[in-house]
Amino acid sequence: MVLSTRVRIGLVVLLGLVGGGVFWYQRSPRPLNVLLITLDTTRADRLGCYGYSLARTPVLDRLAEKGVLFERAYAPVPLTLPSHATMLTGLYPPEHGLRNNGGAALPSGLPTLATELQAAGYDTGAFVAAFVLDHKFGLQRGFDKYDDDLSLSDPSLHGHHQYRDASLVIDAALRWLRPRTQKPYFCWVHLFDPHYPYLAHEDRFGDAFADRLYDAELAYVDEQLDRLFSTLEKTGALENTVIVVVGDHGESLGEHGELSHSMTVYDATLRVPLLVVSPNEIRPGHRVAEPVSLADLAPTLLDQLGQKPIANASGRSLRPALRGETQPLLPCYAETDEPYHAGHWSPLRALITQKWKYIRSPRAELYDLIADPPELKNLATEMPDQVLKLEEELTAWEERMNERLADNVALTEQERRALSGLGYASYRDTNGDQEQPLRDVKDMLPYYYKLTDASSMIDAGKYELAEPILREVLAADGDYFAAHGELGRCLVRLNRLPEAVQSLRRAMELDPGAEGVQSMLGATLFMQGDYPAAVEALELAIRLNPDTYQNYFNLGMTLEKLDRMDDAIKQYEDCLERAPDLEQARQRLETLRNR
After folding, report:
1. What is the pTM (predicted TM-score) of this model?
2. How far is the C-alpha of 523 from the C-alpha of 504, rounded, in Å?
3. In this predicted model, what pLDDT tens digit does every residue of 339-389 receive, in sequence order?
4. What DSSP state is assigned to residue 551?
5. In this structure, is the dihedral angle defined by the CA atoms of residues 505, 506, 510 and 514, taken in order, positive or negative?
6. Omega of the bond prior to 29 within 30 degrees of 0, cis?
7. Which CATH superfamily is domain 442-593 in?
8. Cα torsion for 380, 382, 386, 387, to the nearest 10°?
9. H/E run at residue 126
10. Which of 6, 312, 370, 406 would suit a FRET pair with 509, their CA atoms being 20 to 30 Å apart?
């Protein structure tokens, strides 16, 4: 569809055709609006505007033509919650305290982009797609409207894969945006669709992406953004608006042995798209080649809006780069603690400069990002002086950061499992209990995925196939607590209870906070007939997580076996308090009360 050009009195900036719509911008005394779109799990090099010839992303490509594209924008961490916290605060993960998904909440005293704009008189609305950004994790502060409703999410998805479709998120955002006519607004839209599991969207694309499912998700997101932009243009809601599209982290599609994200800090999981369109003071079509951090996002937007900066933010304003000016080169910091949470393997820290990426790990890594963009040749042993220089710079960077502890957050058992891949890892301090050298995640990734495969086999009832794989994993790392837990689960299904108890006890020795394993241990001891030990195990499981109603029921059953009927009644009452519709508990309670 071709639209004729309209002439308006005043200074008008034409953004360009986007899927059949035209965006008009007109300077006015009114403050600029902000539309921030964060694309979950989106790597830069899979978009057309970043040079990927197979991409079907015309909306984002045209946006890049009319705005500023940052060629090397880096996430501070390959995880959704801490990366978004960095974008909204201008602080790196050690500074805002959120270093993993679901472990804690943003400290209540920290200012954010939303709190600053709300205080400046902006209407503020956020529309997020996945539980990992639920309001209880603290990013809701400063938003008049924080829509994290997952009631319409796909019921076939569960746990950490649960999200609502981009179409639903954009519908909610449009309902909020359409009546915006008086005050300036800040609207944050988060789309989760590129996250695994990927869908082919055959209803839209046929078999065009049959062997490129990740690309299909990006094409689908692009279509939904077309709907968002076109609708807002027609209502005038995009006039005088700064648009930012940014990825929160990337996605490894097999590079370096990683099949998704969170475990490594290579460019596949850290380098993200960053596009900025503004009605004033930018150089349309400009591409910024220098590395920048997502910590720079909030400072840049506040500067572009003429607002005061967030005090003590580590990020810097990129406003000069938006105008096409050069800025001083600064390194970017990145980290991941996920290897430690997954297997008590060494966390990773990285420093990225114009030329180099240095990764601190048990076997240091050094890559020349200019000559070797895929990071295939580790130069650490060949260039020890360069490694030492960057290690000193990384250490100095860490010493300058003011580390904070995040706020505690209460999670239900269901929510805990929604945020932990296998349900066994507990969030432990990576600074503690490291007397022994920690294993390098580069060596352990194959076994991490073998464990994932074995867990899927157990879920599918293929216990005999899962057991040898789990024993292979444990032969490689006898202290891999999650593997001991899964072996215990497998042996329970095989009715080899004494062996299962041994594996589960070992898992708890290695990871004392794993309440899921402790619950299984208590249930297994009950099935084995060791009732005193089962009581002790279940009482500990309840202390670890008081929300798990099954533990109260199992403890009640165990106490009945020991003829402690009054104590059993109390456990059934506690169970029903948490699960009022559990008929088995109600029947046992009535039976004991009427005895």
Report:
1. 0.88
2. 11
3. 999 999 999 999 999 999 999 999 999 999 999 999 999 999 999 999 999
4. H
5. negative
6. no
7. Tetratricopeptide repeat domain (1.25.40.10)
8. 30
9. strand 123-127
10. 406
